Every structure is written in structure tokens, then in C-alpha cells.
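dumping these here so i dont lose them again. two proteins, back to back, each one seq then C-alpha cells. dont judge the mess
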Amino acid sequence: MDEMKFFRRAISPTLGEIVEWTGAKPAEGVDLSVTIVDVAPLDRARPGDLVFLDNPKYADQLAATRATACLVGERYADRVPEGVAALVVREPYRACSIVTSRLYPDAARPVSLFDSHGVSPGANVHPLARLEADVIVDPGAVIGPHAEIGSGAVIGPNAVIGPRVRIGRSSAVGAGATVCNALIGDRVIIHPGVRIGQDGFGFAMSPKGHQKVPQVGRVIIQDDVEIGANSTIDRGANRDTIIGEGTKVDNLVQIAHNVVIGRHCVIVSQVGISGSTEFGDFVVAGGQAGITGHLRIGMGAQIAAQSGVMNDVDPGAKVGGSPAKNARDWLKGVAALDRLTKSRGRGREE
């Protein structure tokens, strides 16, 4: 019995089409009319499959692959086995992602889970909401008054779009997500369970009790942003929370009120960013990093996983540890502590 797949393959391209999409250079003698029917890992590929080699860790699997073609860097091109068409490209992983997106376009963003077209009868769309053409709304979704949703957008089942929210064209909101007090750009992907626009954690602390501070700002998410499942983005207190163009946020990330994230940042799972901190463009924050409030993280900075960032980070700096420090100093400290621990252990044994 064939292996069940949840995504329907849209096309079966030729090697010539793949070369055109990726800019790959085919090895001498490659028949560009050969058709590819799927993508697969090196060790599970069958004839008709396309594979790629990007990580040297898997170079040994290349010799045994049964794939029809392989996207491969120049360094390993001569190791592609006979009978497998070598397509030489600078970034094999990126090239394979381009091909996979063509084969399985529905896997690139949330789609209708009910195979809906237009507004499902089970959805609740306020009469004052405005939906452009080709918007899909699944059963159970709620769209509030004066909300505006651009053409080609998909609103998943039981998603909630609050009053006056604006969602751009070709964006997708996954099942059970809530979007309130927010302006969303074009081609934004919001995965299931995301919470956008709830009030931030703001209180005026006092021995008499903690007075709640109303949060009256917005969330602004620019074009081509992706927000992973069950992440939360609080609205601003007295200014806006902003996520810059092209930024990618993993699952289970907390972004607090008034945070400003620059363009094309990468924020990995379980990162927590406290209120009013600002990231420059192209910042990377590794998994479970914690960043305290009112900091400035400079353009291109890299924060190691599980770091505790308590001070500003210079542009281009690499930091790690808790409290976070220069990554090289942090690693030296870890190595020194390891040597000390081992030497004391040997002393006790003697």
C-alpha cells in the first residue's frame, strides 16, 4: 500500500524546469526532460525522487541513494553516484525548498481545513466586516465589525478576527488563532493557536495592590512575517508592538508590549522578549533565550540558546550564557569550569 500523504502534489516537473527555478547547473549529459515526481531524503529516495546534500554529515548517504536527481554543492558534485543526475547549485537546501514549494504549495501556509471556497455557512462574519474577493473563511471562524481582509486570505476554523483588524492579501490565519487590535500585512502566516493583540502584562505595583494599566496600543505586523503555533504577541501599552518585514517567529514565543522587532529577524522557540525591548534587523535569538525589558539589541546580533540577556547588545555581537556575555568569553568560561571539575574529580579518585 502506498504511504499516505496529507499534501497533494500539484505538479511533476522536469529537470529542466527545476534548473530554471533554482539556477542549478546540470552535470554533463543530464537529460533535462526527465520528470521528478517527489522530493525525499537521501536514504529513503526512490527512482523519480529529487534529493539534496547540504550537510556534510550526510555525505556518506549520497553514495547509496536511489534518487533520480540530486541538488548538490560543487564540493560534493563528484560524489554523486552514476545514474543520479547531479544539479550543482550554491545553496542546495534553499534550492530544494524552492522545488518543494512548487510541488506542494498547500504545505507552505495554512489552507482551508474544510476545503472551503468563500465564506463557509458555519462562519460568523459581521455584516459590517469587509472581505475582498477570494477570501476563504472556514466553519466556526468569527470576524468582527469593520474588520478588513484582503483577497486570497484564508481564515481557519474557529479563528477570531477582532473589530477593525486589518489583514493583508494572501495572508493566512490558522485554526483557533485570535487576532485583535492589529494591522497585518500581506503574505503573513499566522499558525494555529497564535494570540495577537491581547493586553500586555502592565501593572502599577503598590503595597496596596497592583493597579492594572490599560494597554491602548496596537500590534503591527509587516509583510512576509511568519508566526509559529501558540506564540503570543501583546499589543502596545501606549505605543505599538511592531514585527518587521520578513521576520520569522517559531512556536511558543512570547513577545511583550511595546517590543519592536526589526526586519528579517529569526526568533526560535520558547524565546521570551520583555516589554519595550527593540531588535535591529537580522537579529537571531536561539531557543529559550530570555531578553529583559527596555534593551537595544543591535542589527545582526546573535543570541545563543538559553541565554539570559540583561544588557544592551552591540550590532553584530554574539552573546551567550546567563547573564549573557561575549560568546567567546562565555565558551572559554564553560571550558575552564569543565577542566576544573574534571581535575578535582581526578584528585578525589587519587
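---- next one ----
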Amino acid sequence: MPASRRLATAALALAPFAFALPAAAQDGQPVRLIVGYAAGGPVDQGARLFAPALSKELGMPVMVENKTGANATIAGSEVVRSKPDGMTLWFAASPTITISPNVMKKMPFDPGKDLLPVAPVLSYYNVLVINKDLPYQKLSDLIQYAKANPHKVTYGSAGMGGSNHLSGELFADRSGTKLSHIPYKGNAPAMTDVIGGQLTMMFDIIGSARTYISGGKVRALAVTSPQRNPSLPNVPTVAESGLDGFDVGGWYGVYAPVGTPADLVDRLNKAVTAAVNQPEMKARLEEMGYELWTGAPRLLADRGTKERAMWATVTKGIEIE
């Protein structure tokens, strides 16, 4: 085989997906990976961990862009309006797909019709953390105080209608307490105020909260998974702590604009799956408390449909602008 042909073959082996992308890719423009939450929060952290791995599989740069606000629907709308050429993807957290359509007065797009599922990435659960200087050592201590002091316990979230907002609503309902919800534009600023004492507590994704817990900046009282999380083995579940059946989690997935060619979606799906399963990436995600969840686009579509129906019951009576 001539040397020039061997070099061309090697280049394609290193960048097996780039040839399927548009001319912009050949000009060195990066794939835009849109994130709907603030920098430093769990979704942003997940995307920035994932982007280099995806870049390696695509053989081209992948750049994370934060488009915050409106329960991440601004980010989703950006992708919906984008050219369906594989150069703009949404690294989405499940609440915008499954919860927001049930609680937003005017949802700017239909997740089931206006977006094309590419690939699932991972599943996650939350952990309830409190300011470290508060006296509560167990979840039952916090519940006892909240019952005796209605609305005195404050909790933050990434915004109205988000999974940690509704985790708080469900927790209040199951525990028979009245809490005060303070919405933020992302998990990171809410966590900052828990650390600073402006908030009593919040439900945060285990993957991003672990650093604050291990660093002694907040105290973990319970995880929202059915079983204890391997990355926080000494933290009991909410169910263990007295609220039977409490099981609240979510997931991340990658979406593209409707109209993206099927062969390109297939290539992107393979790239996302390979990226998540890179040994270092896989180990890092599991260390952070995430569970890998990969497979065909249909898995992402079906889970979105199923959980939209589930949250419709839980969120009945809740409406946000």
C-alpha cells in the first residue's frame, strides 16, 4: 500500500465520524454541546467531563456552551432551532424532558416531537445536604425541627420545576412538613448558599455534591436512591430514614435537532456510547456516584415518554411561568 494511502487510512481510523459531519467540521469548527445550567453545577460538570471523551471519539473538538434559564428550556430551544447537521447537540438533564412539560405554563417546545434522541449517557440520584453548622445529625432530627417550625427550613434548587425542587416538594409531602423553596439559576449557586448558611438544605446530584461532603463543607443526611450509593456508603437512604418508598432520580442524554439524518444519528450514538465507556471516563463517573446508562436512541425516547406521564401525576396543581 502506498504511503499516502496508509496515512489517509490512519487518519480515518483516528477520526471515524468526522467525515460524516458538514464542511464546518472540516474547517475546524467545534461541535457545540449545549448545557442548560450554570457553570460549576452538576450538569455542567458532567458535560465538561464528557466533552473531551466525545471529542476523542469524533476526532474533532467539542465545546461546552452554557445557555441558562427557564428550566433549561432556553438551551433546548437553541438546539431545536439549530441546523440538523450534527454540529449542535444538547447535553440534557431529564427534568427539562420529563418535568417541565407538566409544570411550565408555556413550554417553548415539545420534547417528544421537537427533539431527536441521540443517546442516553447516565443515571443519577440526589443527596440531601444541610449547612454543616446546623445541629441535625439525622434526617429525623431535621424533620422534627421542620414540623415544629413551619416554613423555617429553607431549601434551594436549580429552578422551579426542576428535579431538586420537586424532590423537596415530595419530601415535604411525605414528611408532613412545610418548607420554604428558594429557586436559583443552577445547583452551584444554591450549594454556595447552603455552605454559607443562607439556606438550610438542598437536594443535589450525588456526583457534584460528593466534593462538598468529603471536604466537610456540608453534611449529608440521606440519598434519594432505593439503596445506599457506593460512593457514599455511610449515608442512609431517605427510605431507611423513615420515609418508605422515597425514590427520586434522573438521567442525562444527548439530543439533536429534528431532521438530523438517520445515518448521522447512528454515528453520533456510537460515538457517545464509546465515549462514556472509555475506561477512564467510566471509572470517573462511577467514582462520582453515577450509573452508566447507554444504548439506542429508542431507550432515551421511551424513558422520556414514560417519565413525563409519571411526573404528570406528581406535579398536579404546580404551574410556573
